[in-house]
Amino acid sequence: MKGTAISPKPLILLLPLLIIQMAVLGLGLGIIVSSLTTKYRDLVQLVGFGVQLWMYATPIVYPTSLVPEKWQWVIAINPMTPIIEAFRYSFLGSGTIHFWQMGLSLGTTIIILFIGIILFSRIEKSFMDTV
Fold first, then answer.
1. What is the pLDDT of residue 67?
2. Are 31 and 119 in contact (CB under 8 A)?
3. How many whole angstroms separate alpha carbon 71 and alpha carbon 102?
4. Which is more confidently placed, 8 or 115?
5. Which domain holds residue 85?
6. CA 42 to CA 61: how far, in whole Å?
7. Given pLDDT bands bounded at 50, 70 and 90, which one contains residue 44?
8. 25 in a structural domain
9. Contact status, residue 91 vs residue 36, Cβ threshold 8 Å
10. Residue 113 falls within a domain, yes or no?
11. Distance, CA of 86 to CA of 41 (rounded, Å)
12. Where are the alpha helices (DSSP H) in 1-131?
């Protein structure tokens, strides 16, 4: 998959938006995990493993070009991948940016936030019973 050739300079202007998107994604996932851990105590151990697995599934220390073609779908559905690639392209001038992945990432982030808010509002009523 070939990325769109654009200058890294305009992407530096988008860095605050990328940071906000990362914060919203973290907020949504944090709300989901905190809501579910009140009911399911063993989820805490699973979250540590899940964070490690997600770190290896996100191309932080390796470029996406090193990922074999059969595993590219994992990279494409990860909402952190386009954010990390945009940071890499902005600061280092290397990497590929796919705008469809950026849109998919933003959509996934918004969906995760809304799921977290809905889940929290439903489980909030029974927090005191389970805590």
1. 86
2. yes
3. 18
4. 115
5. 9-18+31-123
6. 30
7. confident
8. no
9. no
10. yes
11. 36
12. 8-13, 15-39, 43-57, 72-77, 81-92, 99-123, 127-130
- Token digits of residue 34: 């905190």
For the chain, how many structural domains are there in total? 1
Amino acid at 3: G
Percent of the chain with pLDDT over 70: 89
Q: Which two tokens stand for residue 128?
A: 């005191």
What mean pLDDT is predicted for residues 98-124? 93
Contact 112, 25 (CB under 8 A): yes
Q: Report CA torsion sign: 83, 85, 90, 96.
A: negative
Q: Residue 124 and residue 131: Cα distance in Å, rounded?
A: 11
Extract the tokens encoding 114.
């809304």
pLDDT at 1 over 60: no
> What's the rounded mean pLDDT across residues 102-121?
95
